[in-house]
C-alpha cells in the first residue's frame, strides 16, 4: 500500500510524510496537504466531475467515522477502490483525536463562518486552516460539490443515523440529496432554517456545496465501534467514489423530516436543563414542559406540539447551543 494511505497513523503520530505525492498503479494521485488532509485526484480520463469532501474527527472522540474514512483512504492507496471523483479527506482536530477528547480548548464546530477570527488558540487556527483547505478544494468551476461531515453523538438516539442539512439565503434543500442520504441508511434529516457556525454550514453557505452533518451512532473510543453499523453508508460512498452509484430512487422512502423549532442557548452558569442525564436524542417532550432555566428568571417552556429534543448538553460554554428543540418538517412544495 502507498505510504500516504496511512493517513490516520500519520495523523495520530503527528508525522509529516517525506513524500507528499504518490500515484496508484491506475494513475490516481494522492497528495498530503497538511496534517490530517489528503487530496485524491483521479486520472483525467476517469473523472466524473464530482468534488467530494469527506471530513471526520472534527470532534476528536468520534472515532467510528474516522475509522470509516481510514478504510476508504486505504482502499484507494491499495488500488482496490478506483476513484473517479476528486476527494478531499480531512481529519478535523488531530490533537483532540490523539487525546480522545471532543476538543481541547474550544469546539471547532462552533468556529466556522468567520467565528475563528474572533478568538485565538489551536482550534481557531485549525478551523481557519480547514476553511482554507475546503475553499481551495471547492474552487474549481463547473463541478459538482458535495460535503459529508461525519460525526457520532454523545448520547444514544431513538433515531440512530440522521443528518443535519444547513440553510443559506436563496437556496432550497435538494430532494435528490435527501434520497441519496436515505439510500445510505440515513433515517431522518433535520432541515435547518437559519445560518450556523458549523463546518457543513460553512461549505454549504460559503462554498456552494451540498453539505450535511451526518450523525452515525454513539461516540466510542477507537476499536470499540462494533455497535455502529456504517455498512450501508460505506457501500454508497464507495460507489460514489468509483463512479458506480446506483440510480437514486426519487422517493424518500420513509425518511423522516424535522425542522428546528428553537435552539436553546445557554446564557450563564446558572443554566439548568431539566432532562434526565441519559435522555436519548429525539425523545418527545410534552407541551408545557419546563425544559430549562437560566439567569434572570429565563424559562424555556415547550410550546410546540410534537416537539422532540436533540443534542441536550448543559455543559457547553456560555453563549453556545445547549439543545435543539425540533418539530416534524417537510420540504416546500416544488
Ligand atoms: O451529541 C451531541 O450532543 C453533539 C453531537 C455533535 O457533535 N453534533 C454536531 C452537529 C453539528 C450541526 O449542527 O450540524 C455538533 O454539535 O457539532
Ligand atoms: Zn461531533
Automatic annotation (TrEMBL):
Cofactors named for this entry: Zn(2+)
GO molecular function, one term: succinylglutamate desuccinylase activity
Enzyme Commission number, as recorded: 3.5.1.96
Binding site for Zn(2+): 59, 62, 151
Enzyme class: hydrolase
Ranges where the Succinylglutamate desuccinylase/Aspartoacylase catalytic domain occurs: 49-240
Gene Ontology BP terms: L-arginine catabolic process to L-glutamate; L-arginine catabolic process to succinate
CDD domains reported in the protein's UniProt record: M14_ASTE
Entries under NCBIfam families matching the protein: arg_catab_astE, PRK05324.1
Task of the protein: Transforms N(2)-succinylglutamate into succinate and glutamate.
Protein name per its UniProtKB record: Succinylglutamate desuccinylase
Species for this entry: Pseudomonas cavernae
Chain's gene name: astE
